[in-house]
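Late entry, evening session. Most of the bench is empty. Finally got around to the prediction I had been postponing all week. Sequence below, unchanged from the version circulated by S.P.
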Amino acid sequence: MLYQITDNTYYTPSSEETDRPNLGYIRGEECSVMVDSGNSPAHVKEYLDALAENGLPVPRYVFLTHHHWDHTFGLSSVDDFMVSVAGFNTNEKLKEQQSYIWDDEHLNAYCEDNTIPLFCKPHILLEYPKLSDICIHTAMIVFKDELRIELGDETLVMRHLTSGHTDDCYYLLAEKAKVLFLGDGNSEEVVGTDWIDHKEPLEGLIKQLEDIDFDYCLTGHVPVYTKNELLEDLKERLAAVS
């Protein structure tokens, strides 16, 4: 299933059962872009099948909004035909995860110390009945401050985002379409099974978003927001923690 946001931006919808996030797609005159690589090869296949069914070309690039498993564990299945792009902080965290051992014992240990939030465990086990199938790749292109890419008729800008969810969140803006791809940058911190807001990151996020020129925003697990809807939601959460 594929949904359209604007003439050149689309997404495949999230799935609560295995915590598959929305995956973005930006069609350009010169090439196209995938936003986040999904949580597994099966998720990537679902995404590519949706593009094929709608006559859209396979992306040349995949951009990662942050390191969390549901947005990056599909990267191993696209590295042969897409160029992967990530911020420096995200790539460093992916390097750390490459040392993880994927079996029941170690997953339990990672959840006990919140290296992986307990919230994620049942979703990971559903997506990966055989945990040893997990294969983590790092990005081919890594940047620190800002990255710009021209797609011919669209300009993409990627920058670090202030967020309480994790310190390696980045946003991707399609400037001409005025669509912002936020990943989970609008989400709370996950500790165990709790979702916790923090005042200072929320204030910083709101200020940063107010200064970005966009009309629509695709987040990780919620359908499309308008800019006003997103800011209203964040301000309500800020009022609750202030």
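Two things to note before I forget:
The first strand starts at residue 3 and ends at 6.
The two ends are 40 Å apart (CA to CA).
Will write this up properly tomorrow.
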